[in-house]
Design goal:
single chain, 189 residues, alpha+beta, tt1808, chain A, six-stranded mixed beta sheet, three-stranded antiparallel beta sheet
Length: 189
């Protein structure tokens, strides 16, 4: 069973951001702090492989960058999605041109991977929050039934499965990944 640990309520966002980081990461939503579930095998493989596959396409031409477990603070929340993708021109940078440590903006694409016994509705709420803040695309990957729920602005969610091609950001339109191909990464045979 996945346990989500709640701590003291009624923190301010500023107080939360002063706290030491936890492993797994904690998130701040509506004055409450919740620790994320520890990723398990399928979750870990999908997160690493998908982040790597996206970066292989976007990094060479400086189109975007995919990050795993990156804290994003925006809209009075501080969340740590499984994967975030930021368009190249939106990546926060230091004066020296290095990637900044703090991302105080919404991602362009947010990807969450459902863990066993994790509340799908809580994860959907996080994706919907991102969409309302300006995120262009959201995926909720469900390894149990090998499907992906797709979120786009001002549209009803849709579910992709089998050989269906998953939608990606417009800047990645030449890259195609089917649901079957993505879930084939889980096989070690």
């Amino acid at each position: 069973m996945v346990t989500v640990h709640k701590t003291r309520q009624n923190f301010t966002l500023e107080e939360f951001l002063e706290l030491p980081e936890t492993k797994p990461a904690s998130e701040y939503v509506n004055g409450e702090i919740e620790q994320k579930a520890m990723p398990q095998g399928e979750h870990s493989i999908l997160q690493i492989r998908l982040g790597t596959a996206i970066n292989e396409v976007v990094l060479p031409n400086k189109i975007a960058h995919a990050f795993t477990e990156l804290r994003c603070t925006f809209g009075e929340r501080s969340i740590v999605p499984d994967i975030t993708v930021f368009s190249w021109n939106r990546i926060p940078k230091t004066e020296q041109g290095r990637i900044a440590n703090k991302f105080k903006l919404h991602p362009d694409w947010v990807i969450e991977i459902l863990s066993p016994e994790q509340s799908a509705n809580k994860v959907i709420k996080k994706i919907l929050f991102c969409m309302k803040q300006g995120t262009e695309l959201g995926w909720l990957i469900d390894p149990e039934d090998e499907s992906v729920m797709i979120f786009k602005p001002n549209q009803l969610p849709e579910i992709k499965s089998d050989e269906e091609i998953l939608p990606v950001l417009e800047s990645l339109k030449d890259w195609q990944l089917s649901v079957t191909e993505m879930f084939s990464w889980l096989s070690v045979e």
